[in-house]
Amino acid sequence: MPLSPDQQAEIDAQRSAPAQTLRATVPGMEAHLYTAHPVLDHGFVRVIDYMGDDSAICQAARVSYGRGTKSVQNDEGLIRYLMRHWHSTPFEMCEIKLHVKLPVFVARQWIRHRTANVNEYSARYSILDREFYIPAPDALNAQSQVNNQGRGELLEGDEAARVLELLKADSTRAYDHYQDMISQENGQQGLARELARMNLPANIYTQWYWKVDLHNLLHFLRLRADAHAQYEIRVYADAMCKIVADWVPFAYKAFEDYRLGAVTMSSQMMDCLRRMLAGETVTEENCGMSKREWREFQGVLS
Fold first, then answer.
1. Is there a binding annotation on residue 84?
2. What is the pLDDT of residues 216-229, one digit of tens each?
3. How do beta strands 141-143 and 43-51 pair?
4. Is 214 annotated as a binding residue?
5. 108 is catalytic
6. CATH code that applies to domain 5-133+203-260
7. Most buried of the four, 31, 125, 279, 285, by CB within 10 Å?
8. Could you report how far apart the first and last alpha carbons of the chain are, in Å?
9. CA–CA distance from 256 to each of 84, 175, 279 (Å)?
10. 219 is known to lie in a ligand binding site
11. Which residues does the record give as dUMP binding sites (predicted)?
């Protein structure tokens, strides 16, 4: 179960006592507040709080024009201009605070985005729950033969069953030993929690509050919602994309068009494209790019 009974009770209490406010609110985000969106087998993403909307982005952009020079351009057009030309500070005027439950190995990838405020559940003070991420059979892949940090073909049959059994058995054994080490029964003093936690596997679940501005959130989503991102972090990014689309629809649509759905070409790629448009036959041998760059270029064209 993603939410503990105590967490669910807290959420129910918060939802039953709405507060009035004079600040800007977004109906789509109000519906997300205190709602846990399930991710993976035990994880979730939920909105704790947010600040700003599409109008806040435009307000911040126009304040720099000076009095008497306010553009008559509509908000959506302005936001698309800002996104298209890589302006960042107006998007920093919006912020969101999320409560996320995720496997530790996903958290270690996530924390590399160092532009957020984070407070994580502490295993020094509290005992972690017996909850582990065990991949679904359709998420068990072999090592890719062309990408050292990617996945290849799906594992099937006996090999898939063997891997799943090992994951389950190792997770259970490690947690049993963790419990045994911290136990104060039978005259034991119990090992300190801050030491006992080192025996836990990287697929155990942790939780944190993660607060970030929209500019840095979109940068996170551009990398982690990409098809090349690891599946286990990508599904969190996908859930967050749906939330952002309800929060700042103009900004998210521009993000989809100019970031998620766009490509970046090197000067060599642009030169090859011009040559192709001029009728020249461009091949891997005469393109002036490495094999990997050529393969990526072919991927862009297709």
1. no
2. 999 999 999 998 89
3. unpaired
4. yes
5. no
6. 3.30.1360.170
7. 31
8. 42
9. 11, 42, 32
10. yes
11. 109-112, 120-124, 197, 224
